[in-house]
Amino acid sequence: MGTISYNKNNKCIDCGKSLSSCYALRCVDCSVIARIKPKNKCVDCGKEINGGYKRCHSCACKYNWKTSKKLKNLNRFGKNNGMFGKQHTKETKRKICLKTQKQFQNGMPKKTKDKISRTLKNKYRDINYKNNVLKSQRKGMKLSPNKPEKLLNSLLQQILPKEYKYNKTLSIAGLIPDFVNKNNNKIIEMYGDYWHKRPEVLKRDKRRKIAYKKYGYKTLIIWEHELKNLDEVKDKIKEFNKIGDFGYGNI
């Protein structure tokens, strides 16, 4: 089996006779002659094949798969894509969002919704897949630390330079901590007073600490109001790095 070609001229490549199919390269007589020619060698693996072909069956399949993959990448992410190097405006993004919401709410059948939901749930059970998705999402969001996180980061660099890093991409059990020390498997979380004292968020944060513990990480919680006394925060960080798990603060 050779690679499928498209004959634009609809003529035999050997004798020039007109052909009925644009996918045929030779007429019947010339194809018979080509098949009884001395055997050639496959250009990829060197295996002996019929004279009319360049590649053996397995190499032809691999070649077709590679070329189709390259074309797919060019069409989706490369210059063949009409949006290559461009970005949608905010108004266009808003319209696309509204359209997809309407399709999902009204136009999409319930069976399709359930099927999509099951597929995503099954995919997210794979921790590696979930971590990769979260990592790519965080990269696209281009997050930067807020004011309390910046202040805490400056304290950490004073006390333990280059030990803790502000985390943007590392996911642990599908969760993304604020500051991570990979050398000692320790995490420092910066909790805002308004958001993290809500009842539903408190429950989630407790599950978060348990999840970190399963993966061998110890967690220190620093609240926003604690930053009013930086000396106490420094002592708390130093104590945490000596002893280990410093508890869950005021929760």
How would you describe the overall organization of this protein?
The protein is α+β, with helices and mostly antiparallel strands. It folds into 3 domains: 1-81, no CATH class; 90-125; 147-243, VSR Endonuclease (Endonuclease, Chain A, 3-Layer(aba) Sandwich), CATH 3.40.960. The protein has helices at 28-35, 57-77, 90-107, 110-124, 127-141, 147-159, 199-214, 230-243; strands at 40-41, 48-49, 165-166, 179-181, 186-191, 218-223.
List the helices and strands and how they pair.
Elements: H1 28-35, E1 40-41, E2 48-49, H2 57-77, H3 90-107, H4 110-124, H5 127-141, H6 147-159, E3 165-166, E4 179-181, E5 186-191, H7 199-214, E6 218-223, H8 230-243
Parallel strand pairs: 5-6
Antiparallel strand pairs: 1-2, 3-4, 4-5
